[in-house]
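Handout, section 4.2: multi-component inputs.
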Amino acid sequence: MQTKSRFDRNSPEIKAYLNELAHQFVREGIMVAFPTCLPGMTTPITHDESHITALDINSEGHVYGGTSGRQAHLFGAAFHGLTGIVLDAGAVPGSTTTEAICCGTSRVIAFVNGPQGGRAVAMPHLDLAEDWIQEWGLEEPVLKDLGECVPGEPVVHAISAPSGKTVAGVTTRHLFTVDVESGVITVVGEAPGRGHLAMGHAGVFGQDEGTQLWHFDVASGHIRRAAVHLPDGEWAGPLRWARDRHSGLLFTADAAGRLFSFDENKGFRALGRAHLAPVGPMAVVPDGRLFGFCGDEMANLFSCDTVSGSFTNLGVAASILEQRRYGYQFGDAVTGPDGEIVFGEDDNGGHLWLYFPKIKGAISTPLTP
Amino acid sequence: MSSRPEIDRRTFMKVGGGVLAAGLAPSLGAEARALGGTPYAVKWYPFTGHPDSDTCWSLSVGPDGRIYAAACAESLPGGVVKPVRYNEQRDDLDYLFDLAEKVDDPGDSGRASQCKIHYSFAPSMHDGVLYMATHLSGPPIDLPVYSPWYSWHDTKRCFRGSALLAFDTRTDRVLWWDTLIPKEGCRCLLHDEERGLLYAMSYPRDHFIIYDLRSRKRRDVGRISSINPQALFLDKRHRVWTSSDYGRLVRYTPETDRLEISPGLLAHDLNYQTGWHSVFYDVAPSPDGECVYASTWCPNPRLMRIWPNEGEWPRVEDLGPATQLRDTSFPIDMYRDHCGGLTFGGDGNLYYVASRWRDSKYNPTPESRKQNEGVVWRLDPQTLKREEVARLEHPTGMAHYVSRGAVDHNGDLFFGHVGNHPSGIFKVSMPADRKRRNAHLPIRMWG
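Output:
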């Protein structure tokens, strides 16, 4: 039996639906997918080794990252001045995932997992401030294996202390530190590793048993278990965090996509809820807006006004500048020096996605002379 | 500049629909060009048994040597696909079944419908089965259009998934069905019969899928890029090949379970193209199994010959453009500038259909000719010389966008066509001296 359509093209519902479809990709701002190479001059990181799962940014605004896949690669990237390059520093032998990248004052420490365990690897700061339009010169970076962090335990995440001299990390069962300069790894004590860590004013927060956070004071080396109770929510999944560099506020979401801000003195405050769950990588721009991805398999970009708590669905990622590409899965995010966000694409042939948010208050109407 | 305004896809479908709207009876699908004994006589077979059909994306020869085609209905909300077969005794089409009914996903489900089969017929020679997998795009019955991106997380609207059917051509029964790719459509399908594996490309996420026919389990090997390649092909070492957004070969090697990207680029116009969008549109195997012939899905489609069994990466021979010169300062409509229907005839020559259109500068044909024409070309693999052997002609509609071509066991050529309402297929009768029995063998194992 042949079917016949059942709708009125002129109904408000259908018009609204068509309007939604017309704006299903990147409803605000501009996304640019940048390949993991010097475009036109070097080859990108191998297709199945380029899931970008960890990013960090240093004080010069250079982005460092790591990939996952058949082999894990470490890279540096810069997008200001005469740069516009992702420089592959090479694959880390025996590693298949990058769990964290931590920019220190003197170098970058990466944390990878693979058949050789959960390891720390040092990467020198890359000389990215060249004239990448006309001519350039540089040495190939040498990666240095600092060893297994905790024998037999995969690394879950790590984060740089504000000093840039120490990195705090966690395996599935232990908390450890790495001295950035010397590369010495010290196991501090027991603490479960679930999800990402967050950097507070003076210490690190990590997901403890149940619905609590542990706290690690970097200066004293003291771990306080069950230091903070998470608010009512669904906390079975691994946590992701974003930090407002200016206010110091932290943000996290529960498994249902509910977003909370966290002030170390005032505690948690419930904001709104993303239209999809889980919430993935997030970053906060200088005006206080938070941007992130939500949903599995085909993530949607969203923004959250962290004052009002209101959410906006910004649709599926798509790049129409530099590379024409849809973006479906993202692994990490950092905020760049000018408020742009760099998302790492966690997919085959992963790109760095630069997101330039719409200027706050700009009204999207047709331009008039 | 005669080629502006261009005909975008929506207009293309609408214009085609006008044929039906004008009340043209299906009987008009009689011989369009009464060429009787003329070499390469052309005949149009509209899908009158499925008048809602607007496209024919799949046309293949079955394991029985007969021609199968997909009468797709993707513009109509709730539209469904019906596989058809050319009946040489009646010189007409047999409508095999309503696929949506067979897979319990009717057109009025409220989800995106089982509207088409897109380059996804794949034969199985040992048991006479023709595998077929569905694709998406047809909107739910109560919506005008469908977007797989927008509705991905909508359990009410999202496409249930590509349905894989095993159709027994010996008994005309559907033996079984399964969901090949949840939520996504199947752009193209390939059967490695020796290993009992089906390979597919998903849409929209462009993932490479492997389906084990013994265990009936699927495996997602991962994403390739963004622009769906429109064809997969198999080499002697059971490696599966396709292409990426940037015009590179993509190779899946079962032994390493990896998708690898070639260092070299596929053929494209070096004057103004970079290789971007030079993805495969159609790929036909050479009868000796040593090489394949391919066309790209790109403005100014290019013909290539690829030798997958040679070297670390295959040698790719650029055989030049398949269509005419044009104004390259304007992005021509991809429904006008097109090449498809690659297939080998019983005479050992490659046949394909390339579009040709009136252009005041590059092809100033008289007004008496149609604006767009589908030209059947014959390419001699030895000399690479090309000859125009026929023009496809529809009694009233379009005849320039051929999706796939195949040769049946009698040695005649058939082409699936996109854009008319109803859609249909062309038969091009081969000259007697170029025909042979079982001309479809060795059979192409992909759609």
